Give the backbone structure.
Amino acid sequence: MRRVSVVGSTGTGKTTFARELASILGVPHVECDALFWEPDWRMAERETFLARIDAATLGEAWVADGNYGGVGAREIVWGRADTVIWLDFSLFVIFLRLWRRTTARIRDRAELWPGTGNRETVRNAFFSRESLFIWALRTYRRRKRQYAELFARPEFARLTVHRFREPHEAELWLDAQRPVSAPRI
C-alpha cells in the first residue's frame, strides 16, 4: 500500500483520514480540493486542475483524498493507485461531522487552503444553494451507488478496496497501520 485514494461523500472526513494515513506511511498527502479551488471560490480550469493532479500523483507513494470523477481526476488517481479507502458513512454521521467542521471553521475564520482567502461563512454554509449540507444531501445516494458500480468494473479489480461504513471501523483500521513499537528491554 503505497498509493492510496480516499473517497466518500462530502463530510465523511476524507481529508482528515488521508492526512493521518499519509503521516503514518510517511508519504505526501494530496488534497484534491486544495488543487481545485482558486482564490475567491473560483474553480480551477479543468486542464489546470488535471495537470496539478497529474503532477501530485507522479511519485511512488502518496495518499490522495477527494472524488472529482466528473472532471477526470479519478482516472488519473485510480490509474496510479493501488488502494482505495471508501468512507461510506451514514447521512446522520455526515451531517454531524459537517456541522462540527463548518461551525468550527466559521468561528475560527479558518482559511481553507493557504493563499486562497477562501473561508466558510454562515451565509455560504447555511443559506446558499452551494451549501455543503445541500450538496451532501443531493449526492449521497448517487455516490453510494456509483462507487459500488465502479468497484465492480474489471479495470478496477486490481485495486485493494477498504469500505468502512462506521467511523470506528476506519479508526481501528488506521490504528492497525501504525508501526508497532519495538519492545522495551
User: Anything to note?
Assistant: The chain has one domain: 3-176. The mean pLDDT is 93.
